[in-house]
Specification:
Strand order of the largest sheet: 4-3-2-1-5
Structural class: alpha+beta
Strand content: 15-25%
CATH topology of the largest domain: Helix Hairpins
CATH architecture of the largest domain: Orthogonal Bundle
Largest sheet: 5 strands, antiparallel
Order of helices and strands: HHHHHHEEEEHEEHEEHEE
Oligomer: single chain
Shape: elongated
CATH class of the largest domain: Mainly Alpha
Helix content: 40-55%
C-alpha cells in the first residue's frame, strides 16, 4: 500500500510524499472528520427546521409568497456558509483565511455591482415593508399597471395595454409610488360641465338621482357634490363617489354613460369650447379696414 501511494503521488504530483502526507493527516484526523460529518448532517436538519419555522412565522404575518421565498433563500445560504466554516474548523482547517477571502471577494463584487446590490437591497425592503404586493395596481411616474412579480433586481408591472415593464427596485424605494389597491374602497372624482344657461340646482339634483340609482355607490346619501369652478365655457360640478376598489373602472364608465343619458333627457347642455374670431375686410378703394366680430365654435363656424 505504501509503495502504491508513493508511485501514484510521484505520477500525479511529481512528489512521492504528497499522498503519503494526506494519508497520515487523514488517519490522524479521522475522529475529527467523522465528527465534522455528523455536525454537517445535524446542521442540515437544523437549517431545514429554521427555514420551516421562518415560513410559518411569515405566513402568520401574511407575507407575500415572493417575500417568503426570498427570505428562506437568504436564511439557507447564510446558515449553510456558517455550518461549513464550523465543519472546516473541526477538522483543523483554519477558517480565518476563508473569512478574509470571502470578505475581500464580497467587497470586490459589491464595488463592481453597486447598482445591482442597491436593487437587491431595495427588493428586500419592498418585500419586508410591503408597500405593494403582487396583484396590486400601482403608479410609478407615468407608468400605471398591475404588479406581476417582485424579483431580486426588478419589479415587473403589466400595463393595461398588456406591456410588461421592468422597474429597478431602487427606483421604487427612492420615488413616490401610488398604490391604488391598498385600500378596500376608493373615491371616484367626477367632474361634469354644464352650460351657464342651465339651472345648476336641477343639474345637481339629476346627478344625485343618477348616483342614488347605482347600488355600487357607497356614499350616495351623503356624497360631496357641488359647483367647484366657473370655467371659461361652463359651470363645473364635482362629485366624489365612494366605491369598492375592484369596481372602480366599471362604476366610472357606467356613471358617465348614465349622466350623459340623464342630461340629454332633461335638456342640460354639455358645452364645448368656443372661440371668438374677428374677420377683417379691407376696402381696396380707400384702404380702410372694416372689422366684423364673428363667433366660432370647435365644431361650427358662423361667418
Amino acid at each position: 500500500m505504501y509503495e502504491f501511494l508513493a508511485a501514484a503521488s510521484q505520477l500525479l504530483f511529481k512528489d512521492a510524499n504528497v499522498l503519503l502526507t494526506l494519508r497520515e493527516w487523514f488517519l490522524s484526523q479521522a475522529s475529527n472528520i467523522l465528527l465534522a460529518l455528523i455536525i454537517f448532517v445535524i446542521g442540515r436538519y437544523i437549517i431545514h427546521w429554521i427555514k420551516a419555522f421562518a415560513v410559518r412565522v411569515m405566513s402568520r404575518a401574511h407575507y407575500d409568497s415572493a417575500a417568503m421565498s426570498f427570505m428562506t433563500q437568504i436564511i439557507n445560504y447564510v446558515l449553510l456558509v456558517g455550518l461549513l466554516l464550523i465543519c472546516f474548523n473541526q477538522i483543523g482547517v483554519p477558517t480565518t483565511s476563508f473569512v478574509a477571502a470571502f470578505g475581500a471577494f464580497g467587497l470586490g463584487i459589491g464595488l463592481a455591482l453597486q447598482n445591482n446590490m442597491s436593487n437587491l437591497a431595495s427588493g428586500l425592503l419592498i418585500l419586508i415593508f410591503k408597500p405593494f404586493r403582487a396583484g396590486h395596481v400601482i403608479q410609478v411616474g407615468d407608468i400605471v399597471g398591475s404588479v406581476t412579480s417582485i424579483q431580486f433586481m426588478y419589479t415587473i408591472i403589466t400595463t393595461k395595454d398588456k406591456k410588461r415593464v421592468y422597474i429597478p427596485n431602487s427606483i421604487l424605494t427612492s420615488q413616490s409610488v401610488t398604490n391604488y389597491s391598498y385600500m378596500k374602497e376608493r373615491m371616484i372624482p367626477f367632474v361634469f360641465d354644464i352650460g351657464y344657461n342651465n339651472n345648476h340646482h336641477e343639474a345637481i339634483k339629476v346627478l344625485k338621482d343618477v348616483f342614488a340609482r347605482d347600488k355600487r355607490i357607497l356614499n350616495a346619501k351623503y356624497m360631496e357634490i357641488g359647483i367647484s369652478e366657473f370655467g371659461e365655457n361652463s359651470v363645473r360640478i364635482s362629485a366624489f363617489a365612494e366605491v369598492k376598489t375592484h369596481q372602480f373602472i366599471d362604476v366610472q364608465y357606467s356613471i358617465m354613460s348614465d349622466v350623459k343619458d340623464a342630461f340629454d333627457k332633461h335638456g342640460i347642455d354639455i358645452p364645448y369650447p368656443q372661440r371668438v374670431v374677428y374677420v377683417q375686410n379691407v376696402d381696396t378703394s380707400t384702404g380702410e379696414r372694416k372689422e366684423t366680430k364673428k363667433k366660432a365654435t370647435a365644431t361650427n363656424v358662423e361667418l
